[in-house]
Amino acid sequence: MPLIPEEPQIHESAQGPRATPASGRTAPTPRPVPGPRPAAPPRPGRPGPHRPAPPVGRTPRDVAAAKPGASGPVAPAPSGGASRTPQIQLIPATAAGALDAAEEAVDLLLESGRTPGDVLVITTGEPHPWAAHELSFGDTSYWAQHDAGDDVFYTDAAVAERAASRPVVVVAVNGGSDSVAAAALPLALSRAGALLIVCGDPQQINAVLGAGV
Q1: Pairing outcome for strands 87-92 and 166-172
Q2: For an engineered disulfide with 157, which of 29, 184, 185, 196 has Cβ 3.0 to 4.6 Å away?
Q3: Full strand arrangement of the beta sheet holding 192-200
C-alpha cells in the first residue's frame, strides 16, 4: 500500500517551534558547517555558537504518521523502542528541500525529548555539510563519532550499511537515482528501532517502496 503523505506535526504534549511544510517552501537559513579544528565545533544535535537554540513562543504541532492505513498525530516513541516494527512517516519535500526537511524533523525530535544519540540521518544525494566536514579529517575520525553514539549522526546512503541501528532513522531523499533510494529505504527501515521518517517526493518514495512496507 502506498504511503499517505500528511502535514508534518509533533505531539501536542511536546514543546518546540512550528515546522513549516518542506515542499515548495523557501528554505530557511541553512545551519553553518562547524568551523575547523581545534575550535571544537558543536556536533549535530547540540546547540552551540554555530547552531543557535531554536526560537521560543511558537506553537508546536504533531508530526503525522504516513504509515499505510494510519493517519493523525503520533507521539514520539519511547527511547526503549519496544515495538519490533518501526512506524513510518513521510514528510513531502522536493529533492532540493529534502535535507532541510530532515533538519526540521531532527529539531522536532530533539525538542520532543529524543536524545541526539537516538537519531541517524541518511542522505541519498549530496552529503550533509556536517558529514562532509567531518570526513575531511579522515574516515577513522568520522566513524569514531558514530561509534560514540552520543550525537545525531549523518551519513551517505552509499556507506550507511556501516551505521548501527538507532531508535529513529531519518532519510533525506535529496537526489541520487531511484536505485540509490531503492537500496537506502529498506536499509534505513532495518536500522530504525522505533521510527523511520522519509523526507522526499511522495510519488518517488511510493514507487520505490511499492507494497513492500
Answers
A1: unpaired
A2: 184
A3: 87-92, 192-200, 166-172, 119-123, 153-156
Separation CA 144–CA 52 (nearest Å): 25
* Residue 188 buriedness (CB in 10 A; 0-12 / 13-18 / 19+): buried
Q: How many helices (H) and strands (E) does the chain have?
A: 5, 5
Q: Could you list the beta-strand ranges (E) of 65-106.
A: 87-92
| Coil, helix or strand at residue 108 | helix
CA-CA distance, 156 to 124, in Å (whole number)?
6
Report the distance separating Cα 109 and Cα 211, nearest Å. Answer: 27
Asked if the bond preceding 38 is cis, omega within 30° of 0, the reply is: yes
**pLDDT tens per residue, range 57-101:** 322 233 333 333 333 333 344 444 444 689 999 999 999 999 999
